[in-house]
Specification:
By secondary structure, the protein is of the alpha/beta class. The chain has 2 domains: 153 residues, Rossmann fold (3-Layer(aba) Sandwich), CATH 3.40.50; 236 residues, Rna Polymerase Sigma Factor, Chain: A (Orthogonal Bundle). It contains 18 helices and 12 strands. The strands form 2 sheets. A 7-stranded parallel β-sheet has the order 4-3-2-1-5-6-7, sandwiched between helices. Helix 4 links the parallel strand 2 and strand 3. InterPro entries: DXP_reductoisomerase, DXP_reductoisomerase_C, DXP_reductoisomerase_N, DXPR_C, DXPR_C_sf, NAD(P)-bd_dom_sf.
Length: 449
């Protein structure tokens, strides 16, 4: 018999259990031996990071076990395959209308697999279901939800006492001060390859111990597909060109962010929130495609620089976050081939052509609600660019315009409600500005092209 359950709003565990878990040091629950199987909740399961996380979990059943999957509901067939593959106990679907499609897909897959009586996972529909998934008792919660919607889930998981593997950088960008107040030492682990690399170069960071002698953190980036373009060429970039990333296959927003280097700006803000260094000590360099093997570096005052290197494959930083502070399971990916010759090059970022990094530092230095404005204004501008309404270069111009007109809410006054109000304000003002922006250039083609 198939089971369907609509949960009460909020975390599903009893209050007493939640308080007890939240009072325990994170290390006491996740630092067991390699034989310990960690229970994992995956938010954003059908996205790029979520799907790869399912692959990592399924490949290492002696280390990981998925207990809850959550997704928006746009791809119920994939979510059903993931649920059957992992044996997840519960599935959250933000769009309640997708529950029926998920149920039908799951039943069909179970029959095809020769297990027609395979029990349906507990269904957690709507935003209440997502909140229940975020508060579900587990060892590790992977937050791979898209956009600023991931912030409430991060706060819920931190309050529940779970180790949070954070792939939703908007959580830290928009709500960094909120997360800093909610997280205990060692409770937050980054999934982004750059921040994963940095934490591996900082001995003791996982245990909340200070790492002495850090001079600078250096984030690497491919430079995107337009790193050699002139300003005139950048103004003529089309959405199709911007969506063709040289290294990674990602969603449209993140791919365009990589082309404008807004993604690197967000990562600088994220690095400051995670590692508590000043913005003057966090920088970015271009490590161009097809190299992309040095994922970030930590420079020490004694003159040494530690770097983490690996082929570009998101399964490794995902596995690192799920297993942290242990090493991930063996053979997650093939290592670099050190028997051959290699050439690694690094280039400075031209901030005149790519001002996103300067704007990110400015927003981060203003603090409070300003990083949320940076993020929201960018998302509105990217949507307009992908719709063909504005040129590529108007994306960062829109961010600058909205930031200029924002009066920041200071860190100590920032609440979740204030973050949401700031996000709405920034989107409204971005849309107003976009109505007056220079239209995207019309690209004429010759007959027969």
């Amino acid at each position: 018999m198939y089971e369907s359950l609509t949960p009460a709003p909020g975390p599903v565990m009893p209050e007493r259990v939640r308080r007890n878990r939240a009072s325990q040091p994170v290390a006491s629950r996740v630092l067991g031996g390699n034989s310990e199987v960690r229970s994992v909740v995956v938010l954003g399961a059908t996205g790029s990071v979520g799907s790869q996380a399912i692959d990592v979990i399924a490949a290492s059943p002696s280390r990981f076990r998925a207990v809850v999957l959550a997704a928006g509901g746009a791809n119920p067939g994939l979510l059903a395959r993931q649920a059957l593959r992992t044996g997840a106990r519960a599935v959250a679907v933000t769009d309640p209308s997708a529950v029926e499609a998920f149920t039908a897909a799951f039943a069909a897959l179970a029959r095809a697999a020769g297990t027609p009586r395979h029990p349906l996972p507990v269904m957690l529909p709507g935003t209440e279901g997502l909140s229940a998934a975020a508060g579900w008792p587990c060892d590790v919660l992977l937050n791979a939800l898209p956009g600023a919607a991931g912030l409430p889930a991060t706060l819920t998981a931190l309050e529940a006492g779970s180790l949070v593997a954070l792939a939703n950088k908007e959580s830290l960008v928009a709500g960094g001060p909120l997360i800093a107040r909610a997280a205990r030492p060692g409770q937050l682990v980054p999934v982004d390859s750059e921040h994963s690399a940095i934490m591996q170069c900082l001995p003791g960071w996982a245990y909340g111990c200070p790492t002495h002698g850090i001079q600078r953190l250096i984030l690497t980036c491919s430079g995107g597909p337009f790193r050699t373009h002139t300003a005139e060429q950048l103004a003529a970039v089309t959405p199709a060109q911007a969506l063709d990333h040289p290294t990674w296959r990602m969603g449209p927003l993140v791919t365009v962010n990589s082309a404008t280097l807004v993604n690197k700006g967000l990562e600088i803000i994220e690095a400051q929130a995670l590692f508590a260094l000043g913005y003057d000590r966090i920088t970015a360099v271009i490590h161009p495609h097809p190299q992309s093997v040095v994922h970030s570096m930590a420079e020490y005052a004694d003159g040494s620089t530690l770097a983490q290197t690996a082929p570009p494959d998101m399964r490794l930083p995902i596995a690192t976050a799920l297993a942290w502070p242990q090493r991930p399971p063996p053979s997650v990916i093939a290592p670099c081939d050190w028997t051959g010759s290699h050439t690694w090059t690094f280039e400075p970022v031209d901030t005149d052509r790519f001002p996103a990094l300067v704007l990110a530092r400015h927003a981060g230095s203003l603090g409070g609600s300003s990083p949320a404005v940076y993020n929201a204004a960018n998302e509105e501008a990217v949507a307009a660019f992908l719709a063909g309404a504005i040129p590529f270069t108007a994306i960062t111009q829109t961010i600058e315009h909205v930031l200029t007109h924002h009066v920041p809410i200071p860190d100590h006054d920032l609440t979740l409600e204030a973050v949401n109000a700031t996000d709405a304000w920034a989107r409204h003002h971005a849309r107003e500005h976009l109505h007056t922006a220079t239209p995207a250039p019309v690209r004429h083609t010759r007959k027969g092209d």
